[in-house]
Write a structure and sequence with these properties.
CATH superfamily of chain A: MetI-like
Largest interface: A-B, 31 and 46 residues
Order of helices and strands of chain B: EEEHEEEHHHHEHEHEEH
Strand order of the largest sheet of chain B: 6-7-8-3-9-10
CATH architecture of chain A: Orthogonal Bundle
CATH class of chain A: Mainly Alpha
Number of helices of chain A: 10
Distance between the termini of chain A: 43 Å
Strand content of chain A: under 5%
Number of domains of chain A: 1
Largest sheet of chain A: none
Mean pLDDT of chain A: 86
Shape of chain A: flat
Low-confidence stretches of chain A: none
Distance between the termini of chain B: 53 Å
Number of strands of chain A: 0
Shape of chain B: globular
Strand content of chain B: 15-25%
Radius of gyration of chain A: 26 Å
CATH topology of chain A: MetI-like fold
Order of helices and strands of chain A: HHHHHHHHHH
Low-confidence stretches of chain B: none
Oligomer: heterodimer
């Protein structure tokens, strides 16, 4: 009969954490930025194809769809002469203002609605009516009231960003696992402590998700509000150019919009990753 | 010396709103646990084991009967008791260290004064080196070690464990049973331990309460007079072990079958 020796389980053996292998610069570049490199190559390929098809396909009217090189040339010129940067800056100022207003109002109201049933009962009809309403239909009225300046645009952007944030905040507060709340209570936590140490950190996940959706929604609405007689902004730039049939300019404006959106959303993913280290993935 | 837990004729009823009835989960249940004793409760599913634990934890108020903890009536959760949960219930946004300190933090302790204590319990459950890991990076067995360290860190007098090893794989489970016994040798808590496993009950307990199907009553109280520490012995090879196992299973067989039949009846009709 062999003797039973109690094992010391899971004692972290140092050799379990191996040192990372040394890799050459190119290997590391490829490993870390593979997705980005492939995406850039894909975009480059798209522009080359565009150029080739436009040049050699007789059925495409160059008046409606210009060549890629013409578009890029206009893009470059309007960037260095400062037109596109200033239009974009005007748009992004409205966007940032609207987004901040939405965040500052939606999170506290959402937390209150999620945790106090009477507040939820009272406000949720307005919330859902506002959410399902095609709000952009009210743009002409709001423009009459507030004029063509940034105010109407900021109002619309903030309202559109408000809904995804508040709805996710409420959901976050309401879906905390009951066993986690039980942990807080059984260790003798007060209501406030349970709220601060369990419900709120849990809800942050959902708040961040809502903020990400809002970032996207806000960009779409920012562009939409600039289509109706706006004095400035990247949306107005596109409309102006296509009104006078300078299609190169319209395409250049669209490229700026898409790139801006990509940059903003990537930035959000990055911030999200920093804010939630416990979700960090393991790399193989 | 005072008993750690004195439960006298405890009954608990729940209102089932959907079925418009009241369910009696526990019926005139009495048990007393001496200080430092290891009480195991076994019984068929839904027999009120967890209900009793919730009563001891101060989460559920009995509709009848009296519960004394060290001669004082219970009026809610308190620092003299800690719970280890079946599903670990760790906070996913906290590291191992921060999870272990959670109870102390809730009780208003200053972290800097308790650094040594937190480290001590992390070491005790064998998680040295994993202080900065997040729960999603750990295995089930390791997560439950964190749960155990968190419960021990407040230095409670009573440890309540609700099927703590049920979600852990069979091998880690055997190891954890030995680990728990070794840890309790050092810390000396009174334990109330719920399980479905008769083997686990005999391996761990000083005293085993066998319960009936719902409404839960005590069917038998079995004293386990086997030598400790048991992790150093092959107690499963002792003749008493198999006798006791058979005895408890005989008690439970009818109860478990009645639960199965009731379940079949319910889903059938």
């Amino acid at each position: 009969m062999t003797e039973y020796v109690p094992q010391a389980p899971d004692k972290a053996p140092p050799e379990k954490f191996l040192e990372l292998e040394k890799k050459s610069f190119w290997e590391r570049l490829w490993k870390n930025y593979r997705a980005g490199i492939v995406a850039l190559l894909g975009i480059l390929l798209f522009f080359i194809l565009w150029e080739v098809v436009q040049t050699y396909a007789p059925f495409i009217d160059p008046f409606i769809i210009p060549t890629a090189s013409d578009v890029l040339e206009v893009l470059w010129q309007d960037i260095i002469n400062g037109v596109l940067p200033s239009e974009l800056a005007w748009s992004l100022r409205n966007y940032a203002a609207g987004y901040l207003i939405a965040t500052a109002t939606a999170i506290p109201i959402g937390l209150a609605m999620g945790s106090i049933p009477i507040v939820n009962r009272l406000l949720s009809p307005y919330l859902w009516i506002g959410f399902v309403m095609p709000r952009i239909a009210f743009l002409p009225i709001v423009i009459i009231a507030l004029g063509f300046g940034p105010e109407a645009k900021i109002l619309f952007i903030s309202i559109s960003c408000f809904f995804p944030i508040i709805i996710n905040t409420i959901a976050g507060v309401q879906t905390v696992s009951p066993s986690l709340i039980k942990v807080g209570r059984l260790f003798g936590g007060t209501r406030l402590q349970v709220y601060r140490k369990i419900i709120f950190p849990y809800a942050i996940n959902f708040v961040l998700t809502g903020m990400r959706i809002a970032a996207r929604t806000g960009l779409v609405v920012m562009y939409a509000t600039e289509i109706f007689g706006s004095p400035a902004g990247i949306g107005a730039y596109v409309i102006e150019k296509s009104d006078v049939f300078v299609m190169e300019g319209a395409f250049a404006g669209l490229i700026v919009i898409v790139v801006t959106a990509l940059v903003i959303l990537t930035l959000f993913d990055y911030i999200d990753g920093l804010a939630r280290p416990w979700r960090s993935e393991v790399s193989f | 010396m005072a008993n750690a837990i004195d439960a006298t004729s405890i009954s608990v009823e729940y209102t089932l709103i959907r079925k418009k009835t009241r369910l009696k989960a526990l019926h005139k249940f009495s048990v007393s646990v001496k200080d430092g004793e290891f009480l195991v409760i076994v019984g068929p599913s839904g027999c009120g084991k967890t209900t009793f634990m919730n009563v001891v934890a101060g989460e559920v108020t009995p509709s009848e009967g009296e519960l004394l903890i060290f001669d004082k009536p219970v009026s809610g959760p308190g620092p003299d008791r800690s719970v280890v949960f079946q599903e670990y219930a760790l906070l996913p946004w906290r590291t191992v260290w921060d999870n272990v300190k959670f109870g102390l933090e809730i009780q208003g302790a200053n972290e800097s004064e308790y650094m040594d204590r937190i480290q001590h319990f992390i070491d005790l459950v064998g998680l040295t080196g994993f202080e900065r890991s997040y729960p999603h990076e750990l295995s089930g067995g390791m997560c439950q070690r964190v749960g155990l360290a968190r419960a021990l860190a407040t230095e409670p007098k009573i440890l309540l464990m609700d099927e703590p090893f049920a979600a852990i794989d069979a091998m880690s489970r055997e190891l954890m049973q030995g680990e728990l016994e070794r840890i309790l040798e050092q810390t000396g808590q009174t334990v109330v331990f719920i399980t479905h496993s008769i083997d686990e009950a005999i391996t761990m307990g000083d005293k085993i309460v066998v319960m009936t199907a719902v409404p839960g009553r005590m069917k038998d109280l079995v004293d386990v007079n086997m030598p400790r520490p048991r992790y150093e012995e092959h107690i499963k090879l002792l003749p008493e072990y198999s006798e006791m196992r058979e005895h408890i299973w005989d008690l439970l067989r009818g109860e478990a079958a009645s639960v199965l039949r009731a379940g079949a009846h319910e889903s059938g009709g």
